[in-house]
Specification:
Helices cover about 40% and strands about 20% of the residues. It is an alpha+beta fold and about 625 residues long. The chain has four domains: about 220 residues, Histidine kinase-like ATPase, C-terminal domain (Heat Shock Protein 90, 2-Layer Sandwich), CATH 3.30.565; about 140 residues, Ribosomal Protein S5, domain 2; about 80 residues, 3-Layer(aba) Sandwich (Rossmann fold); about 130 residues, Heat shock protein 90, C-terminal domain (Four Helix Bundle (Hemerythrin (Met), subunit A), Up-down Bundle). α2 crosses α5, α8 crosses α9 and α9 packs across α14. The protein binds adenosine-5'-diphosphate.
Length: about 625
């Protein structure tokens, strides 16, 4: 029989496993048991849809240890695998492709891969130098043996097996100075590993254990007898009493179930009784999954009907803006053999989804209120989802989500909610002020911001590229409009001051028209302003598109070349204003000044220059004079 090669990705993963520096070797058992449990689920499910001859009570997973042979055998009487399935399932990795994502060497990276990937069966090679899988599929007479010594390849041969199911035989590696594998032949060690990682598996995990027992009829004489022991409690963690579960248990379950190497940020465990009863165990990850922002990422919760998984990723249970939530829902009100199409219309499922959404929202609100630091951590990772939620579907969900938003405050120097902003508003303030830019530091340096801060108003700094779109979608909060302090109509002047400025602008109309011409249509207009404290010049915008938004829109694929309507404003109280008034008759000088001022204003806004050489030369000429 010719040895077959593993598919490319599998080979890489195998190499990784064989030479694993992954510290947590124990997880191999969890992975194999979890596969066995899935195989039992599949058979149970099949028997239900096929005519129901199987009883769940007959299902088991058995662990046998052989110290002489140095083998661990894990047997299940689940659905088994055909020859083809052995080939397809164990010769390749189901979720191929994602492996290429991170493949450079490096300890942390390897752990990341193993953690995020869900290596499953291949983890057997962390502890074994040879693995055999003997399997007979449901409805088949013939059995097959798959065997492999790692990266070299594998062989599949026909063999005998009396009953349906799968046995996995691990030939443990030899011990050396660094590593010991014989501990995995110790019943006590195995028992502890099962308890730790697989306690919730709903089928009995059995093992023969030696027990010292008092001899019958004797008072002090003991004998060693071999007893079959069930190692796991078989109660899924989500069905256990909340008060009896330690956070560590929740964390371990999360890590193993959702392939994360970090514990979750927040655990939400609820049991709902009533019209529609269900248990839900939900997690908010402490970081975005590696594929979260790729097309491959699928949102959804695992769906169980009374302990039996009926769907791996039920997308209907989560709104898009909570797509980062991981977890599962178990309800006895859902029928086991319900189809995907029917599920979508299922009244119970819709009710559960509504409740779950509410629950996640209220947990987040609670966190926001009680543990701001944690919430900020959450928001760093997933705040953008909440923002999309406000913005998408024409703002359909903005009312429910607006109180989950936080923005950086110029005054508090930290993230605040809109409610907090409103509470801190000054008496004479009727709008919510914001300014936007690439970073907090950059916004803070905007000339337009200075005066507003100087008058002791609080400004929200919008630094996410979606922020301004979000604010525009919201339009107002608690009756207060959002106002961009860089908008041309923004001012804090009194009526008299306004009038005086208008007059001044009227007087220099001709100069401003020439300046606009010098800038050949780059700006809508030029004018004096009072909004700048000590800065000479700034750019404001007119209409819905701010400079920042124009930048975002133009960075998108197939952009339409959107432009903001810019106004160049010159500080009327700055010496430069006086200078301009003086030189307005000198065409050349006015042109040089105008160009330099405009270049300055662009740079301050974070916009690039189209004519840097020209500007540079102009400045040098000026210096040389
Ligand atoms: P995963 O479980 O994440 O799909 P694995 O590498 O652990 O990946 O397993 C690959 C596939 O092999 C499984 O999806 C399953 O179809 C099959 N398999 C593994 N173990 C068993 C088993 N004990 N009984 C039946 N099928 C199994």
């Amino acid at each position: 029989m010719r040895k077959k090669e593993f598919k490319a990705e599998s080979k890489k993963l195998l190499d990784l496993m064989v030479n694993s520096i992954y510290t947590n070797k124990e997880i191999f058992l969890r992975e194999i048991i979890s596969n066995a449990s899935d195989a039992l689920d599949k058979l149970y499910y099949k028997s239900l849809t096929d005519g129901g001859e199987k009883d769940r009570k007959d299902f088991f997973i058995q662990i046998d240890l052989n110290k002489d042979e140095r083998t661990i055998t894990i047997t299940d009487n689940g659905i088994g695998m055909t020859e083809k399935e052995l080939e397809n399932n164990l010769g390749t990795i189901a979720k191929s492709g994602s492996f290429d994502f991170k493949n450079e060497a490096g300890k942390q990276k390897e752990i990341d891969i193993i953690g995020q990937f869900g290596v499953g069966f291949y983890s057997a090679f962390m502890v074994s130098d040879k693995v055999e899988v003997i399997s007979r599929a449901y409805g088949e007479e013939k059995a097959y043996k798959w065997e492999s010594e790692g990266a070299e390849g594998y062989i599949i041969t026909p063999c005998e097996k009396e009953s349906i199911g799968t046995s996995i035989i691990l030939y443990l590696k030899e011990d050396d100075e660094d590593e010991s594998y014989k501990e995995f032949l110790d019943t006590y060690k195995i028992e502890r590993m099962v308890k730790k990682y697989s306690d919730y598996i709903k089928y009995p995990i059995k093992m023969n254990v030696e027990e010292e027992k008092l001899k019958e009829g004797s008072k002090d004489e003991y004998e060693t007898i071999i007893e079959e022991k069930v190692l796991n409690s078989m109660i899924p963690i989500w069905k256990k009493n909340k008060s009896k579960i330690k956070q560590e248990e929740y964390d371990d379950f999360y890590k193993s179930k959702f392939f994360d190497y970090e514990k979750p940020l927040q655990t939400i465990h609820t049991a709902v009784e009533g019209q529609c009863s269900y248990n839900a165990l939900l997690y908010i990850p402490s970081h975005a999954p590696y594929d979260f922002y790729s097309k491959e990422y699928e949102k959804g919760l695992e769906l169980y009907s009374n302990g039996v998984m009926i769907m791996e990723k039920c997308a209907d249970l989560l709104p898009d803006y909570f797509s980062f939530v991981k977890g599962l829902v178990d309800s006895s009100d859902l029928s086991l053999n319900i189809s995907r199409e029917m599920l979508q219309q299922d009244r119970f499922l819709q009710m559960i989804a509504k409740n779950i959404e509410k629950k996640i929202k209220s947990e987040l609100s609670k966190m926001l209120e009680k543990d701001r630091e944690k919430y900020i951590e959450f928001f760093k990772n997933f705040g953008i989802q909440i923002k999309y939620g406000v913005y998408n579907d024409y703002g359909m969900h903005k009312e429910e989500l607006k109180d989950l938003l936080i923005f950086y405050s110029s005054k508090e120097k930290k993230m605040v909610t809109l409610k907090e902003y409103i509470k801190n508003m000054k008496e004479n303030q009727d709008s919510i002020y914001y300014a936007s830019g690439e970073s907090i530091d950059k916004v803070d340096l905007l000339p337009q911001v200075e005066m507003v801060k100087d008058k002791d108003f609080e400004i929200l700094y919008l630094t996410d590229y979606v922020d301004e779109f979000v604010v525009q979608m919201l339009m107002e909060y608690d009756g207060k409009k959002f106002v961009n302090v860089c908008d041309k109509d923004f001012d804090l002047d009194t009526e008299e001051e306004k009038e005086a400025l208008q007059k001044e602008n009227e007087n220099y109309k001709d100069m401003f028209t020439s300046m606009k011409e010098i800038l050949s249509g780059e700006v809508e207009s030029v004018r004096f302003t009072h909004r700048l404290k000590k800065h000479p010049v700034c750019l404001t915008t007119e209409g819905e598109i701010s400079n920042q938004m124009a930048k975002v829109l133009n960075a998108m694929p197939n952009n339409q070349g959107v432009q903001s309507k810019k106004i160049m404003e010159i500080n009327e109280e700055h010496p430069i204003a006086k200078k301009l008034k003086e030189v307005q008759g000198n065409k050349d000088l006015l042109a040089s000044y105008t160009k330099i001022l405009y270049a300055q204003a662009r740079l301050i806004e974070g916009l690039s220059l189209e004519n840097p050489t020209e500007i540079s030369n102009l400045i040098c000429d000026m210096i040389a004079k």
